[in-house]
């Protein structure tokens, strides 16, 4: 007689501080798989003392790391990339379980992308940090003698950076902050999103493998707002880099202002996909449908508002309905699944409230929107999981909440317009301005239209990204830009050096 082995209990993870590991001072909390609703592991609850210790470690490490040569900083970042790729098979199942991402997204859009970000900023560490300025003849003044005055502008590290990250792509989002910050000579205390911090904690093992100096990277976690708030409040933290909701970003900006912290805030979005009358719908429909197909719509750049010329309106609605119907919803471990769960039951309920509110305001539900559909193709444990089917709402007006506020889920609304003037007015009529899209056979027309959109990024006939562009938002979608070489500037202070010949 044989018996199945008793499964091991979920592991309790530890904080990574000053190159070592410590228990959370306030205990631990469970991290739940959004598909199975089972506990993946227990994350440490950092106490105020834990945060203080992590900040102190980063402050102590800063003096040495900031004076480390660029070539050595680049070598450390390249070793981190190598060590991360070597642990790919450990990271993928953990990241998939804690995020609920489909196996395709978890395997292709997490570890490889994060590793490439470390490599990109290994190269970035070697980019010139000095900008020479033309000599300037200055006449004598009571201040100083006259002469030919020379100067340079030099990028210097900011200091200790607190990186507070979002839940949708945990290690990718962290790598996008951590790598340029370290490349510039800063040190980092990271506070991952509470929903899925385990992969970010595991990055500590990667830094150990890479032989990184202790204290340059520290990770503290917590189930609520207290851990991040302690970072923002600390007088020893010089900068906060935050990705998340606009509501939280406002609080960080206000609280961080007390100590004049530098801020990089990448906040919410309400992307408009403007479909002009000459658009190729074979391009436009799948691009807009990416709001459903990519990580269940949990992405701030998604084109969740389809603004469609009235002559193509019904055609686009029908095309999107067919696209939604073709997307398999269910177990994220199945290779055929396109739409997995959203991150928590609370978030699922929030998304459903937007759908119900839109229907109450007069919108027409074309696809999705019922709990039965969410579990029609259930995951491994029937009836479990935080699923929202791809939802399409037509006859939406610009004033509806679902058309103005960020839903952050697989919900697309379709709004008609008569001409370009109305399209621009609708696109700009939200508090957000992160990423919009224009679809037209005339790319010069689309280019001109993009100039009128109050948004940090515009895709023309594509939902693809360019990794070297400056990324950030207008209005309440954020403050500052990162990406490519702009990321080096984001984690720098400028110092002017002046001398006289």
From TrEMBL:
<keyword id="KW-0560">Oxidoreductase</keyword>
<dbReference type="InterPro" id="IPR016160">
    <property type="entry name" value="Ald_DH_CS_CYS"/>
</dbReference>
<protein>
    <recommendedName>
        <fullName>aldehyde dehydrogenase (NAD(+))</fullName>
        <ecNumber>1.2.1.3</ecNumber>
    </recommendedName>
</protein>
<dbReference type="Pfam" id="PF00171">
    <property type="entry name" value="Aldedh"/>
</dbReference>
<dbReference type="InterPro" id="IPR016162">
    <property type="entry name" value="Ald_DH_N"/>
</dbReference>
<dbReference type="InterPro" id="IPR016163">
    <property type="entry name" value="Ald_DH_C"/>
</dbReference>
<feature type="domain" description="Aldehyde dehydrogenase">
    <location>
        <begin position="21"/>
        <end position="496"/>
    </location>
</feature>
<dbReference type="InterPro" id="IPR016161">
    <property type="entry name" value="Ald_DH/histidinol_DH"/>
</dbReference>
<dbReference type="InterPro" id="IPR015590">
    <property type="entry name" value="Aldehyde_DH_dom"/>
</dbReference>
<comment type="similarity">
    <text>Belongs to the aldehyde dehydrogenase family.</text>
</comment>
